[in-house]
Structure formats: structure tokens, C-alpha cells
Amino acid sequence: MKDISEQRFYLVREDVLTEAMQKTLEVKKLLQRDRMSILDAVAQTGLSRSAFYKYRDAVFPFHSIVKERILTVFLQLEDRAGTLATLLQSVAEAHCNILTIHQTIPIQGRANVTLSLDVTAMEIDLETFLQQLKKLDFVESADVVSSGSY
């Protein structure tokens, strides 16, 4: 088998996959969702175990490949002691993983902060998250700069 960096990947519509490939995806879903054995899952879908083993490491649903959801937020803050710590605590409580932080030097009592966040584990929607940030008394504005795979 080739090194992953040497392999080529394609995005293919489901209806052009072979029946065995489609059933392999069904088996993988059953294994993940119902925590059943491979033997039971292939029997339920009518797929042979050999076909499952042939395709299991080659066929994936698109959403399983896009694992990280990265969000970049631009905030304008009042320059007060502890504001960044409080902001970061709020981000952590929303189950966001902070990837990068960029803060400008405060000018005229205001500082700009740009956060890049992995929001894969975030359980609330984007609008609710932004509203929570805006409710902090020192946050003057909070805007999404970019959202990859969100």
C-alpha cells in the first residue's frame, strides 16, 4: 500500500458507488451507531465479510473526512484588567479549543482580539455562541471572520 501522501482521493456521488461499497458504508454506520460486531453488521446488510474488509479502509462518508470545524472570530474589547482571561474562560466553557490568539496593543482604551477556534466539540450553534460573547460587558463587538467546515 502506498504512503498516504502518495495516495490520491476522489469525491464520488453515492449512486455511482458499487453495491458492496454502499453496503460497506452501511456496516460502518452500524458499527459506530449500534456497537455491534462486524459479523452481525455484515449479516444485517447482506455484505460478505471479505468485501467489507476489502473496502473498509478505502470508502468513507464525506463528513467523516472533515473532522475539524475552525472558526475565526474578531472581537473588540474594552481594555480592562482580566478581560482576556474572562473571554478565554467563556470560550472554554462553550467547548471550543483555542488554536490561535492575536491581540493588538490597546489604543484609546480598546483592544482587538482575533481568535481561531476548533469548534468541533461545541454543542451550541454559532449564533448562540456569538450572543454569549457579546453579553460579556467588556465586549463591544464580536464578528465571524471565517468559518471553515462549519
Task: Briefly say what this structure is.
The chain has 150 residues and is an alpha+beta fold. It contains 6 helices and 4 strands, in the order ααααβαββαβ.
Report on this structure.
The chain is α+β, with helices and mostly antiparallel strands. It is built from six helices and four strands. A four-stranded antiparallel β-sheet has the order 2-3-1-4, with helices on one face. Helix 1 (19-34) crosses helix 2. The longest helix is centred in the first third of the chain and has 16 residues, at 19-34. The chain is elongated and about 70 Å long. The two termini are 33 Å apart. The model has no long low-confidence stretch (mean pLDDT 88).
